[in-house]
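Researcher: Good morning. I'm working through a list of sequences from a screen, and I'd like to move beyond sequence-only analysis. For each chain I'm collecting a predicted structure so we can compare shapes side by side. This is the next one on the list. No need for commentary yet; just the structure.
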Amino acid sequence: MTIGIAVVGAGRWGSNHIRNLLAMPRCRLRWVCDTSPAALVAIGQRFPGVVTAQRLDNVLGDAAVQAVVIAAPASAHAALATACLQAGKHVLVEKPLSTVLDDARALVAAAERAGRVLHVGHLCLHEPGVQRIRRLIEDGALGPLCVIDTDRTSQPGASLDVNVVWDLAVHDISIANFWAGAVPLRVAAVGTTDPSGRVAVVSALLQYPSGALARLRASWLGPAKVRRAVATGQCGVALFDALDRAAPVLFDDGKGPYAVDDVAAGEPLRIELECFLDAIADGAPSPADGQAGLDVARVLVAADRSLAAGGALVAVAPH
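Model: Good morning. C-alpha cells for this chain:
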C-alpha cells in the first residue's frame, strides 16, 4: 500500500522530512504546506516537482492524503494536529506534542476517537544506540537501574518559540522515560537565561517510581555540540554518544569498557518515518506514540514549574 502524505512546515527540519519521504517507496509526498512563500520557493528549488501550498485546507481536503507530518513551531502543534486528526488523517507531530498539557491530553483522546495514528517526533527513541541500551536494561545486563545522566549542548534555532527545556532537554526526558520504563514522580530544575530572557541552560533531576534518578543538563551556550546519555545500574554502565558513529554504545560490566558491536546503523529520522508508516499500515507499536509524547509533556510542564519556583521539587501531573 502506498501512503499519501503531506508535510506541514517547510523549515530546516521539515526539509529533512521531505528528503526522507521522497526516497521512501512506501509513500507518496503529495503536498508541502507552509504559510511562508519564501520557504515554499526554497523547497521548490531544492526538491523540483514537489507540490506546495500556503493553506492547510489544500492538505485537509485531499482525500489521497492519509497522513501528515507536522514540523511547524511548537506553539502551533496542537491546533495543526487537531485539524488533521479531525479531517481523518494520521499524524506525526514534531516534539513537543504540545506546549499546553491539556491540549496534549486532548490530542491523544482525539486520535483514539478517530482511530488514527498519533506519533510524536521524539527522534532519540529511534536512535539505534538508545534502543540497544534499552535492550541491555531489559536483559538485566546493567542490573537494577540506579541513575541516568545526560548532557546535551547545541545552538538554538533562529525561530524557536520555546526555552531550552522544551528544545533540548525534551530529548533526554524522552530517553530517560524510555530507559526507566516509567514517568517520573517529581522533577526539580534550575536554570539561567540568555539576553532574550529565555532559559538557555538547565539542570534537572527526575525521580522515578523505582527509586532511579535522572540527572539532565541541557544548554544553548556551550562551545561544542554534545549528545551523551549514560545509564548506570548496580552491575554495569552503558554510555550512548550520538556523535560517535564508530562506537556509539560503550558498556562496562566492571571489567572495563568495551564497544557494543551489534548496534544497528541507520538515520534515526528515516527509522522514525518507517515506524510511523508501519503503524499506519498494520498497527505496529512505536516507542514515540501519542501517550509517550503526553508523558514527556507532563515532565516538561513540571520542569517549567520548578524553574519558576526556584528549583523546588514539583510533582508530575497525572496523565
